[in-house]
User: Which sequence fits this backbone?
């Protein structure tokens, strides 16, 4: 795997390494990530762990992410699961590979209330040509119960270089 700073995962890892150990650094990393990916930022996730193919992301239960039933909205859960799966995947990609979400399957197991943690793991694998890769994320409540599972299908392919680029 390439470890140059041109790889998206390498850039994220470098930012995480700089910020995560500082007071407020995980908050800042998460806010910068939310700024870079605005829709994901709309749920204000907090990255708790990022590295070696393992990701943990927290979602605070608050009015902005609730539905009319008083629980966390289904799409906020899908957003959280997609984020966790994508971070776990991108962390191991080299500079020449891009990932685009092409499918998502979300299963809801119980009402999601309180602080939630999404966990995803993904082992790096070599990519030659276009390939689809499923990455699962589980979302847990404070009691440790699984409230939702997300399987995101990512299409991995060679990064296209702009015309005229060397």
Assistant:
């Amino acid at each position: 795997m390439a470890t140059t700073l041109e790889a998206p995962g390498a850039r994220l890892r470098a930012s995480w390494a700089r910020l995560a150990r500082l007071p407020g650094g995980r908050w800042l990393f998460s806010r910068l990530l939310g700024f870079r990916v605005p829709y994901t930022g709309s749920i204000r996730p907090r990255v708790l762990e990022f590295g070696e193919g393992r990701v943990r992301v927290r979602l605070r239960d608050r009015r902005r992410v609730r539905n009319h039933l008083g629980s966390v909205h289904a799409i906020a859960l899908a957003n959280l699961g997609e984020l966790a799966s994508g971070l776990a995947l991108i962390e191991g990609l080299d500079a020449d590979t891009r990932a685009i979400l092409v499918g998502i399957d979300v299963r809801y197991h119980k009402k999601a209330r309180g602080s939630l943690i999404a966990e995803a793991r993904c082992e790096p694998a070599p990519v030659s040509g276009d390939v689809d890769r499923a990455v699962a994320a589980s979302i847990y409540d404070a009691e440790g119960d699984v409230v939702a599972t997300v399987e995101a299908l990512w299409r991995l392919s060679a990064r296209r270089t702009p015309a005229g680029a060397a």
Notes: The chain has four helices and six strands. The helical segments are 8-19, 25-36, 38-41, 74-90. Residues 74-90 form the longest helix (17 residues).
